[in-house]
Amino acid sequence: MIKVGIIGATGYAGQELVRLIEQHPDAQIVTLTSQSYAGKDYSEVYSSYAHKSYVCQEEDIEKMADICDVIFLALPHGVASKKINNDILNKVKIIDLGADFRLQDIDVYEKWYTTHYSKDILPEAVYGLCEINRDKIKGKRIVGNPGCYTTCSILSLYPLVKEKMIDLSSIIIDAKSGATGAGRGLSLPNHYCELNESVKAYKIASHRHTPEIEEQLGYAAGEKIVLSFTPHLIPMDRGILATCYATLNDNYTYDDIRRAYEIYYKDEYFIRLTKEGVFPETKWVKGSNFVDIGFAVDERTGRVIVIGVIDNLFKGAAGQAVQNMNILFGIDEKTGLDYIPVFPA
User: Fold this and answer.
1) 148 an active-site residue?
2) Which domain holds residue 214?
3) What is the Cα–Cα distance from 119 to 206, expressed in whole angstroms?
């Protein structure tokens, strides 16, 4: 059994990790921590765990490294880089759900986030977008688990960028997320009365997932990419829908584009391409690790419009983290993740 530790287990992504590991046939939780609820039974935080006996521990990553095979960090950005060092990595594998080990360009990270405290370790971290970096993830000591908006956006556009079918300077991503994407902390904009019966854009031209999308799509293209990304908050619990626009480089048909997606995704279990004229909805993937992608060619404007959807807490966070764990330990990627989406929910 893979011995698992979870730091930050009482946030939304942390709770989803607990739920998934609890049901994983090849992994078991040996310790979980919470800064806010140390000493409390986990069921006092989430009553859905009333039949379990987990107690939230105070964090001691050194001790955790001695008893765990892998530690998941579900912490705010800027925290993980203060905790991880070579001594820790010599004992245990790390999967960081924050942003500290996602961006390889340290200057870009510090421009968009904060000071990075593990610059010596950053070069060995791999970006854990499983369907694209699977071979790079194998054998690594540290994985930067991708962000939710980024997972949906990158996977939606990757084949078009890789096959050079679109004008890279024309990419626009319009994305919507449920409220859990903002985390569990108290915040006035996320109060029910503020959020309900409204849709709003936020962090216009300044969202921190922008450079992550640009960096990874830039690797696919073999050149630097600058794009427009605008996130929106939707009054629902979970889910992301990304509508991606780009100008086509030729008179490509639907079938041409379909072939490009099938080159990269035909063998990817967790990526489902919809039929022509069918466009994915967030309710189709809720409670699952699936990514649903559909697209249309707008002949009038010469653009392609791609729609991608994920569950932001599953494929956009905890599910992908478990998928990364499966790859790191050489077991079937689907293990503990092969759930049919919940409907209705």
Assistant:
1) yes
2) 149-310
3) 24
3-class SS shares of the chain: helix, strand, coil, % to 5: 35, 20, 45
Q: How many CB atoms lie within 10 A of CB 50?
A: 11
With a CB cutoff of 8 Å and minimum separation 6, the contacts of 159 are 165, 260, 261, 263, 264, 265
- In a shared domain, residues 97 and 10: yes
Residue ranges in 41-83 assigned as alpha helix (H): 42-45, 61-67, 80-83
Among residues 56, 68, 130, 148, the one annotated as catalytic is 148
Q: Give the total number of structural domains in the chain.
A: 2
DSSP characters over 86-100:
HHHHTT-EEEE-SST
What number of CA atoms fall less than 13 Å from residue 211's CA on the CB side? 16
Co-location of 173 and 115 in the same domain: no
Condensed to tens digits (0 to 9), the pLDDT of residues 237-248 reads: 999 999 999 999
DSSP H or E run through 27: strand 27-33
Does residue 179 have a pLDDT over 70? Answer: yes
Interhelix angle 148-162/254-265, nearest 10 degrees = 120
Residue matched to tokens 């249309």: 296
Q: Are 89 and 197 part of one and the same domain?
A: no
Specify whether the CB–CB gap between 16 and 319 falls below 8 A: yes
**pLDDT tens digits, one per residue of 118-143:** 999 999 999 999 999 999 999 999 99
3-class SS of residue 53: coil
Q: CB of 184 within 8 A of CB of 12?
A: yes
3-state SS of 244-286 is: EEEEECCCCCHHHHHHHHHHHHCCCCCEEECCCCCCCCHHHCC
pLDDT (mean) for 91-96 = 98
Burial class (CB within 10 angstroms; exposed 0-12, middle 13-18, buried 19+) of 305 = middle
Does the pLDDT at position 182 exceed 70? Answer: no
Q: Give the rounded percent of residues in the chain with a pLDDT score beyond 90.
A: 91
